[in-house]
Amino acid sequence: MISLGQQIIFKNVTARISANLSLNDITLNLGPDEHWAIVGANGSGKSSVGKLLCNRLKIHSGTAITAQRSEFISFEQVIEILDFERYNDDSDFLDRIDHGTPVREFILGKQVDDDSALLELAKKMKFLPLLERGIRFLSTGEMRKVVICKALLQKPQLLVLDEPFDGLDLESRAILHELISDIIAKGIKVVLLLNRFSEILPEITHIAYVKDCSIFISGAKQELMQSAALQRLHSFHSTLPRSLPKIDGSTLPARLDADVPLIEMRDVEVRYAEKYVLNKLSWTVKPGEHWQISGPNGAGKSTLLNLISGDNTQAYANDIRLFGRKKGSGESVWEIKKRIGLVSSTLQQNYGLRVSVTTVGISGFFDSIGVYQKPTSQQQDIVLEWLRILHMENRRNDPFRSLSYGEQRLVLLARAMVKQPQLLILDEPCQGLDDVNRAMVLKLIDHLGTIGTTQILYVTHHPEDRIPCTTNHLSLVPAEQGGYTALIEYS
Predict the structure, then answer these.
(1) Which of 57, 81, 299, 432 could in theory staple to 406 by disulfide, Cβ–Cβ 3.0 to 4.6 A?
(2) pTM of the predicted protein model
(3) Nearest to residue 189, comparing CAs of 20, 398, 33?
């Protein structure tokens, strides 16, 4: 490794990503005053290019001049940290809440006397009140700030951020943008790895577009944003299916009466110890309605969805009716899940089995992680058809965990759709998707909500990711006595 100020140079570099995949002929020259966005489709290799910049991949050929001190931050890294903390939750054994690693200790370690730099940065990033909280109780958006703060305290010369804005609300994205501007002003070189051209910040001077694990095109931002070749490459040409795949009748639950609401909640409260998450929340989802759900990080959006899906036991202590039955009246969680399709970051974290893409899709019929009974030929055909709609049929035999984060998200969408459920719960379904796949998924979800019988609950932080059929809106807003409650807007 050679150090030459803040200039970073890769010339004809090849580096191994995995046993069967490599970055090929990577040539980049990041000048001293340049800040880059590396853009590409899901599975293109852009995250691996970011790791290469930070010396996290072994170079097999070519030459490189790299930064001596660099930090790489990815969304997957945040998920892994939270997953590890939650796995090591000893609350059941201690007979009290195990708060786990406090934020301050996670950032600084156990034996640090001077925390002035941390306090200053936490104040600027607006998470000072979180310093004594256990990190397992943070939302993914809050954890993103914590990890970036920890990296900055290492005083890197190069900071590579992989999808830094995904999963953040408008206020948090504005704070992060301001922070990145300050980082650049202090002389730290910044590289953003992005799926969305819309997230390229004004301070970015250059763009590289990655395709098939190689640099397809690179240059000054203004020049590339006007490139006809790049626009053609990144355009969306997919068409929607004229009809939806067939439904496997053997998995269908009993039909509800036409006037039965899918969801009824009255004065719902969820709290941990004395801290409210949801407070006096009332909400009804009538037949035929599609809903968008919004609110800041930590407001309880995922908690609200978990009350419906059966993944939060506090549902039984509240006045909640799902599909015409009161929670706790004798229905099993599997009876509820039969009527629901789900896409969420938590599901993606939990799907750690070494199984194929097709197996993940088939598991949607059984609401399971993995498949423990032989699927029918019809079920296999339905899964293949959904994978074809999402342009993932050529990966059907690949291990699910070998896919990029965005590709995994597409497979989970197919898994949720195979049974065309009465209720489709989408918790940030476009997280990790590039512009092309995001446009395809949003149009497909709207198509499903428009021509199918599925009703949609859709959570997103991105106003531009609008689904036209979700005309009703539930906003989580601060409640008077703490926590959040519902502000309802009907179309």
Answers:
(1) 432
(2) 0.75
(3) 33
